[in-house]
Amino acid sequence: MSETATTRTDWGCVLFVDLRNFTNLLEFYGPSRIESVLDELFVDFQRTVDSYGGAVDKLVGDGMLAVFRDDRRQDCEANAVRAASEMLYRRLPELERRTKLNLEIGIGLSTGELHRATIADIDETIISRNVNISSRLQSLCKKFDVSVLTDEGTRENIEQLPEGYRFRLIPDQRIEGIYERIDVFEICSLDDYDEEYIDQFNAAAKRYKEGEYSRALEFFVSSYSQIDRKADRVLLHHFASECFDQLDSADSLFQNADRYDENSTTQRTQADFLFWRLEQYVDRRDLVPAQVLDIGCGSGALTKTLPDLFPEARIVGIDESADQIRKARQDHTHPKVDYEVADISDWDAERSFDIVMSNSTMHWVQRQDDAYQNIRSAMNPGGILAVHQGAKGCYKELHEAARRAYEKLGFEEYFRDFQFPLVYYEKDEMAEVLERNDFDVLKIDVMESEQPDTLVDDFAEATLLSYKQRLSNEAEKYAFTEQYREFAREYDDIDTTRIYAFATRSER
C-alpha cells in the first residue's frame, strides 16, 4: 500500500444491484428518458438501503454498490437480504407502474472482510474480494434468469430468511477472478415456487455437487418436461446439460438407488430421458422435423405430447394392438397426430420420417433385423432414430421370482421349452444391431432407471402375462401370480437397467 493510501477493516455484506438490458433501453428510449428512470430507481434504492442500516458506496453506470456493516457479524446479511427483497418486490414494481416500462434487475450479495481505503487522498472506496463476488453474482443472475444470488458466507450467517422466502442451492459455479469454484444460493419467493419443489431442487442440486449426476439428472429432466415449470427452464436446462456432459465425459453407467416421487411413473420418467436426449441431437443437427414416427405408441398418452416438442411436425403413432390404437384415437386425439395399427417388422410406410422414436417397445419385437431394416427404409437422409428399451439383466430379480413361483407350485412342465419373448442387449450388442442394419450410432447410454413402489405389481400386470399364457386355467394363473408377488417382494434392489440408443441412417 502506498503512502497516499490509508485503510481500515470492517466486516459486512456487499450488495451490488444492476439494471438489466441497459444498452437496449438507452437505444430505444434515449438518454434523457433513461437518465430520469435511473435517477428515480437509485433514489428509491438508496432509501431502501438507508432504511435497513446500509450505506451506498458508489454508483457504477447502471449499477449501485451498497455496504451493510456489522461488527457483531450477525445482522448485516439479514438486513442486506431484506433490502434486496424490498428493491425487487416493492420498489421496482412501483417504478414500473410510474414509468410504464418493463424493468429487470439482478442483485448479488457477498459477505466478508471489507477494507475501506482512501486512494491518493482523492477517493474513498471499498477494497474486498466480496465486491468482486457480488458484482459477478448479479451478472450470474442473468445467465440463470433469476433475480437475487448470494454466496455461501451470506447464506451461513442468516439464521432465518424473511417469511415467504427460501434459499435454493446452485452449486459449483466459476466466478471470474476467483480461483476456486463456489456454491451460490438463489433467494426464492414462495409466490414463484412451492416449498416442495424447492426442497426437491435442493436435493437434486446436492446430488449434483456430490457427483451423483444420474440421480440429479432424473429431477432436472423430469421437472423440465412439466408445463408448470417453464418459468424455471433456464436453470433446469443448465443442470440437465451439465449432468449429461459429466456422464458423457466419464462414458459411465448411470446409477440410481433412490425412489422417485410417488406420483411419477417409470414410463414417464424413461420417456423424459428419451425426449431430452433426442432434443439435444435435433438442436445440434439444426433439424426441423416435418414427420415423426412413434413406434409402439400404446394408448397415445406420450405420442400426444410430441407436437409440443416438435411443433412443425406431423406425428404418426403405430402399435400392433388394435385395442390400444382404438383407445389412442378415443382418449388422446390431436390435430397433428395420426394413429395406425401396424407391426414395425412388416409395416410398409406410406411416408418418410425425419425422426423415428420408440419408448419401451423394441425389446418386444422378435424379428429385430426386419424391424430395423423397415425403420431405416422409412427414414429420410439425415433423420434421427431414438430408441429406449430394457438392457440385458433388466428385472432379472422379478424373472427369478417368477421361476421360483412356478417351481414351488409344480408347474415346471409348462415351462420346459419356455423362451422369454423380450430381446435385451448389452451396450455393444445394441451398437452391433444398429450397425449391421446400416445405422451410424450417435450415442448409446446405459442407465439404471428408478424403482417405483408399484414395480412388482406393474410387472405382474404386463411382463408376467408371457408366463401366465403357459398355464392351463384361471386358478393356476391366480396361484402363480400371488406366489410371484410373495417372492418378488423379498428383493429390495431390482435391476432396472435400460438402454437409450441414438443413431442416424447410414448413407454409405
From TrEMBL:
Superkingdom of the source species: Archaea
Q: CDD domains recorded for this chain?
A: AdoMet_MTases (cd02440), CHD (cd07302)
Lipoprotein among the record's keywords?
no
Q: Does the keyword Cytoplasm apply?
A: no
Q: Name one GO biological process term.
A: intracellular signal transduction
Provide this UniProt record's keywords sorted from A to Z: Methyltransferase, Transferase
Q: Name one Pfam family in it.
A: Guanylate_cyc
Q: GO molecular function, one example?
A: trans-aconitate 2-methyltransferase activity
Supply the SUPFAM superfamilies for this chain.
Nucleotide cyclase, S-adenosyl-L-methionine-dependent methyltransferases
PROSITE patterns attached here? GUANYLATE_CYCLASE_2
Domain called Guanylate cyclase: residue spans: 13-138
Q: Which PANTHER family match?
A: TRANS-ACONITATE 2-METHYLTRANSFERASE-RELATED
Q: Which protein is depicted?
A: Methyltransferase domain-containing protein
